[in-house]
Amino acid sequence: MSSNLIDKAKEDENFLKYLLKDFYCKIIETNDFNNFEKNSSEWLNYKLENNNKNPKKILEVMENHEEKDSFNLLRNKNVIIGKYLLSLFYYKDIIIDIEGFNYNQKLAKNGDSAAQYDLAICYKNGYGIEINFEKAFKWFLNSAENENPDAQYNLAICYMDGLGIQKDQKKAFDWFLAAESKYPVIPNKIEKEIFERDLKLAIANNLIAQNYVGHYYQNGRGINKNEKKAFEWYMKSAVGGYEIAQNNLGDSIAKCAEGQYNLGYCYSNGIGTDKDEEAAFEWYFESAGNGNAMAQNNLGYCYSNGIGTDKDEEAAFEWYFESAGNGNAMAQNNLGYCYANGIGIYEDEESAFDFYLDSAVNGNAMAKNNLGDCYHHGKGTDINEAKAFEWYMKSATAGYDKGQYNLGYCYENGIGTDEDEEKAFEWYLKSAIAGCAEGQYNLGYCYGNGIGTDKDEEKAFVWYLKSAENGNAMAQKNLGYYYQVS
């Protein structure tokens, strides 16, 4: 072997040692166990790419030590770490599925619970082998009996859906609870009882209960929070709802539309699954067609901004109108915005005012601010500074950052109230912390000129910088002044 090859082999050996050490540290330091597998895969890819390492070469080094059992870091307690990392190479398709299947099969037959679970996943999804639900069930059962909570959860799904085994609702329920028993105890007894009641209904294919179970998992109500499981239950409810709609089963359609909406929301925000704007659009569309007002509003937003579909302002207006007619406060505000700016419809300030008012009365903080703007500037109604101040106050106290900015502006300039620079400063501060670029600029101005607070050029610069980074032109101009004099 040439000296270059020997040096390269030693380099790979050293890299693997540090990789295992770093991975061990990552395991003991992690707090996000729900996303650990995904994060670990991303971490591993980063380490390989950043160090310009060929995954196949590093895999060969790992396999050699696995066969010979001669690598210190793969002994005793660290053998688990090494095996998991090796499995991770396979499991995320860094090499090829079939090698991962063979590796897990070998460990699974030796009683390794994690490998038994991974092997079941291979059979269930066809990773490196043909799909075989009976064998998937067998290995989920073996792993579940070895106290693997993920396997117990999947075993429950097998019993619920009849995957590789005859349906058995009682066993499904028992295994679902067994899977959760490994996690911290739920303190609220009533919520736990409600969860278990709805879980039984969900197992029996009640679509509404399936949506509720998803909600419980998403928010940690009666059960430990688990966004991936929430997504899975929303999917069951949503797909079941689609089948009902296909068979025109009347009133049942609306009852499962919420599950379809929740599934769209998960896809839109990457909750329990990868973010997928097209899938989000499709499920919002399905739910909206089944009458869900929240989905109708979100579908309008997708059309308005070209999210998951082509931009179509007329379609956006139509879905906002549909949702607003069903009482959705956000859609009423969005419809007002369409009328105010001629989006998908002709400009009509009076109609904009009317819809802002409807939305504000229904509690929407953004609409309260927009209504304040209407009164402040006389859009769709007469100028009335006292009412402008009143609605800005309602928006600000509801936590809306632009409402907080506008309230600060009213206090600074005596609009609808007495001038009060200290209160102006306080509301600008709240707005700035919440991320409003205008609030950040005015806060910087307050610090720069000693308005409502002591003069502090350093703090002024910090807030101008934040505002400039958020696109505020005045802040960018003021920053130029600071850079010139520094």
Automatic annotation (TrEMBL):
Organism: Glomus cerebriforme
Protein name as annotated: Uncharacterized protein
PANTHER family: DAP3-BINDING CELL DEATH ENHANCER 1 (PTHR45011:SF1)
Pfam family, one: Sel1
